[in-house]
Write a structure and sequence with these properties.
mainly alpha, Helix Hairpins, 3 helices
C-alpha cells in the first residue's frame, strides 16, 4: 500500500512537471523564432546599408578620379601658359634689343648727317656740288655725278625713314606682346585659383572616401556578427 502511494505521488509530480515544462519550451521556441525574424530584418537592413555605402563609396571614388584628372589638366594648362609667357618675354627682350640697335643706327645717321650739314655749310655745299658736277670730264660723267648726289641724299633720307618706321613697328609689337602677356598672367591666376578650389574639393572627397570605407568595414563586421547569431538561433530552434 505504501509503495503504491509512492508510485501515485511520483506520477503526479511527473505530470505536474510535464504540464509546466511543455508550455515553457513552446514559448521559448516562439521567442527564438521572433528573435530570428528580428535578426533577419536587421540583416536585410544592414545588407541594404552596406550596398548603399559601397555604391556611395564607388561614386565618390569616381568623382575623386575626375577631380584628379581636372587638376592634372589645369596643371598642364598652367605649365603651357607659363611656357608661352616665357617665349613672349624672350620676344619682348629681343624686340627691345632691336629697338636699341635701331636707336643706335639713328644716332649714327644723325651724327653722320650733322657732319654732312656742317661740311656743306663750311664749304658752301650748293657751290661745291655744282663744282663737283661741272668738274666732270664730259656731260655723261656730269649727269652721273648729279644723279649720285641726288640718289645718295635720297638714300640717306629713305634709310632714316625706314629705321624710324621699323622702330615704330617694333614698339607697337612690344605693346601687343605686353598686352598678351598681361592677359595670360590673368588667365594663369584664374587657373591657379580653380586648381586650388579643385584641390580643396579633392581633399574633401578623400575624407568622404575614408569615412565610407570605415563605415563599410563596420557594416561588414556587424553583418557577420548578426549572421553568426542567426545561425546559432537556427541550431537552437532545431533542437
Amino acid at each position: 500500500m505504501h509503495r503504491l502511494n509512492n508510485k501515485i505521488l511520483s506520477f503526479f509530480f511527473l505530470l505536474v512537471l510535464l504540464i509546466n515544462v511543455l508550455p515553457i519550451n513552446a514559448q521559448t521556441k516562439k521567442e527564438l523564432e521572433q528573435k530570428k525574424q528580428k535578426l533577419q530584418n536587421e540583416i536585410s537592413l544592414t545588407n541594404k546599408l552596406l550596398n548603399e555605402t559601397r555604391k556611395n563609396k564607388d561614386l565618390t571614388i569616381d568623382e575623386l578620379l575626375k577631380l584628379k584628372s581636372k587638376i592634372s589638366s589645369r596643371t598642364d594648362l598652367i605649365a603651357a601658359i607659363n611656357s608661352e609667357m616665357k617665349l613672349i618675354n624672350k620676344e619682348i627682350k629681343k624686340s627691345n634689343e632691336e629697338i636699341g640697335n635701331l636707336e643706335n643706327e639713328i644716332s649714327r645717321l644723325k651724327v653722320e648727317y650733322a657732319k654732312i650739314i656742317y661740311y656743306a655749310f663750311k664749304h658752301r655745299s650748293s657751290y661745291d656740288k655744282m663744282m663737283f658736277v661741272f668738274a666732270s670730264k664730259n656731260v655723261n660723267q656730269a649727269y652721273k655725278r648729279l644723279k649720285y648726289i641726288q640718289q645718295y641724299s635720297e638714300y640717306r633720307k629713305a634709310q632714316a625713314e625706314e629705321i624710324i618706321k621699323n622702330q615704330a613697328s617694333l614698339k607697337l609689337k612690344i605693346e601687343e606682346l605686353k598686352h598678351t602677356n598681361q592677359e595670360k598672367t590673368v588667365l594663369v591666376s584664374i587657373e591657379e585659383k580653380e586648381k586650388q578650389n579643385l584641390a580643396i574639393e579633392k581633399a574633401q572627397q578623400e575624407t568622404i572616401v575614408q569615412q565610407l570605407q570605415g563605415k563599410e568595414q563596420e557594416l561588414k563586421s556587424e553583418l557577420q556578427k548578426k549572421q553568426e547569431a542567426a545561425q546559432k538561433l537556427d541550431k537552437a530552434i532545431q533542437r
